[in-house]
Amino acid sequence: MTVASAHTGAMLTIGRLAAYAGVTVRAVRHYHRIGLLPEPERDHSDYRTYDAAAVVRLIRIRTLAEAGVPLARVRELLDADPATFAAGAHEIDRRLRAQIRTLQEHRASIARLGSSETLALPPEVLDYLDRLRAIGAPEEMIAPEREAWILMAARWPEQIPAMMADKVAQLEDPEVVRLYRLLGRLAQDWQDEALLAETADLLCDLFAQADASGALDRQDDSTPDPAFVGLVDALADSAHPVVGRLRELIEQRGWSGWTRVEKSDP
Q1: DSSP assignment of 88-105, as one string?
Q2: Which residue of 63, 111, 127, 210 pairs with 215 in a disulfide if CB–CB is 3.0 to 4.6 A?
Q3: Burial (CB count <10 Å: 0-12, 13-18, 19+), residue 88
Q4: The pLDDT of residue 8 is above 60
Q5: Which of 29, 81, 86 is nearest to 58 (CA)?
């Protein structure tokens, strides 16, 4: 009687089995379905009960699964001889080390980003934005410029180095630097009519110089997609009210467009 009672007390319900092995009852049932853990017969009370061997096997299953071993390999390793197990463990270790290297590379990439500005922008554009800051352009002006270059870099990545070289070269012109400073002031006070007129006049002077040099004729090469240019212009219009106001003023002076500039009838 004493022996029978002890034996009965050693048998576990599925809930107790799961608790002892550190898994969920749902996991135990899943392991039954895929054949990793043998499912015991029901006892006279119609319950399935488990013994210590089931706990040990379930702990081994959990340990291998938590180590990243696919469940399809878990069964193979559980039933393997020592040599086969060692070979399998070595292969799993090799795969895990490769995953760790990949994660470390991702961490290094994130660390190199430094800020959200570097996301989706090539180094040439980042350098150009820094140059704008160096001449005194405020962040209110740089932010929409950055968004526009994200679009441009995604649409024409192969043309970005040449575009940026041209933009950096333009910053050697004192009048271009003056333009950016005027735009920076307008970003702070875009309803200053005298400042708006001065900026529009300077824009049109620069457009005329670009037209005379043939630069406007080369716009077809750098921005050949009119629909996309319209998208970039819409982004500029939504970025700050000063853009729409300046576009009105330059149109009155015989020019149209923003990303792509053309002569128009005043």
Answers
A1: HHHHHHHHHHHHHHHHHH
A2: 210
A3: middle
A4: no
A5: 29
Exposure letters 34-61 (e unless 16+ CB within 10 A, then b): eebbeebeeeeeeebbbeeebbebbeeb
What stretch of H or E contains 261? Answer: strand 261-263
pTM: 0.58
Evaluate whether 28 touches 16 at the Cβ level (below 8 Å).
no
Residue 216's CB: how many other CB atoms inside 10 A? 19
pLDDT digits (tens, 9 = 90+) for 191-204: 899 999 999 999 99
Q: Is the dihedral of CA 255, 256, 257, 263 positive or negative?
A: negative
The tokens describing 193, both together, are 């009519």
Q: Angle between the 139-155 and 174-188 helix axes, to the nearest 10 degrees?
A: 110
**Which tens digit of pLDDT belongs to each residue from 30-42?**
999 999 999 988 8
